# Entry
Amino acid sequence: MRSSKIYLLNVIIVGLFGWAMVTYYDAAEEIKTWINDSSVQGFSLNILPTILVLLVAGIAVAVVTRKQRKQGKGWKEALFLPAELKESDEREKMITAKACRNAYVSTMIAFPFLTIGMAAQPLVSDYFAAYPVVVFLLFPFIQMTAYYLTLKKGLS
# Structure
């Protein structure tokens, strides 16, 4: 699978997962209100994001593992080793090592900014209660983007 397709798939899965977590966060607030206030009759939970995450991730896992199994790879490698880390020669191993290094460095750069973003949570929580979930999910997005851009630069 090409790296751009893998990157896009990862971004979609993380985005859908974020949507599901925001939905659960909102439901948790409704459950808290339902428990504390006897006049509230119930709570609602939108399960569409969870179904979409499971569907997209399930299809992606099925396609990738099937392709890997046809190439003679074992189940463990097909399921647990990300497709981005499958190298066939020394050049690809060097590019992957550099991409991993850049993803790590981007983590060290992004972490203080995301921490500052979390410090703004009391100001934003009245308008968008699930703000911490979004800030937290920026972390893997930044890592994936740094990794993908390094791979793209190295493979071109």
Q: What stands out?
A: The CA atoms of residues 34 and 135 lie 27 Å apart. The radius of gyration is 20 Å.
